[in-house]
What we know:
By secondary structure, the protein is an alpha/beta fold. The protein has helices at residues 3-10, 14-51, 64-69, 71-80, 95-98, 138-141, 151-157, 176-185, 189-194, 214-227, 260-268, 279-286, 340-343, 347-360; strands spanning 54-59, 84-91, 106-110, 129-133, 197-202, 230-235, 252-253, 272-276, 291-294, 310-313. The relative contact order is 0.11.
Amino acid sequence: MSAFPKALTRALPGPLYSTLRPVWRKFRAIRNRLFDRVLFPLWLVGRRIRHGKKLVIVYRIGALGDAICTLPLCRELQKRHPGTAVIFFTHADYKKMIMLSRDVDGVYGAKSWEWPFSLPARYKLPGVVRAIYNPKTTDELFPNRGAQLHLIDDLAGSCGVTVPPSDRQPRLVPPPELIKKVQSAYGLAEDVARGRLIIGINCGRSWPVRMWDAAKWQALLDKIHAEFDATVLQFGLTKGKEDEFEQFRGVRCLTNRLKSDEIVALAASCHLIIAIDSGPVHVAGSVAVPVVGLFGAVKPQFRLPPNSPGEGVFTNVPCLFCHHATPLGHWQTGCAYDIRCMKELDAQTVFEAAKGMLLKYPHRVAAPSAG
């Protein structure tokens, strides 16, 4: 619900609000379907006229990290289809983020189409659209087969495209005014002016097989604050104030609050990002910020930014990296080994990796705390 209707309906008496809320949601769903199914072809025609070129559509609806990892494919399609405009079709939540890329000429944010929907051939409008690409991962194309290559190469390869090693790193370019705006909005302006160390973390919520115990996150945070004078920003999604990932000491909690372009701008303000296997790992690489990723089911070398500082940490268990096995291991649905790969990863190992990454880039490290 947009800000004005939300404020208006919440001002109503409780029973009336409860009655009108589902009506508004139904209206919004109909409106979204209208835009995505009826007005989208007209939007394409408008883009064709605006650019004066035929369009190449790249459709990747989810998720955040997958959308970022599709950008190198867009760069190669510009070479494959000279004289065209590359239009990126993604979920509305990621539209502002993808607009920060210089590898696309336009972005459409869908509100009703969701994964695993693919853009059908009927949108290859004569004289308007030259080609449509629906990049997919190996396990999406072959549900029981594990990929043996980086997500960037996997998505591009599904479209018959090879991305050169020098062009494999996605890049997002948040403008200085956006960075300054979000720093001010989320209380970072003074920290930046003082040159204080800023660390971003992303704990979840995600699939259980990706997540790390909240108590270990707290232990990691305590170790960071004991050694460094740092501001720690918490990205990601939680279930609200009763969520155990909402209860950390020593963090500035921004969960459930950030738009996709704000995540990029805040990531660009950080000196280091520490995250489970999730979108912020790719966001960090897109703005050349060092990242430490926590991995278990997925191989770090198949997810970490290919041409930006990154280190993956994991524990040594027999079933490690099961997402790349054939047949696939537990991944999304559950784990026969009680997610040992994440449960046996300890806070000290993650801290040493984070500290090592900071020391590897000493010009980015603030002075240690006096204590």
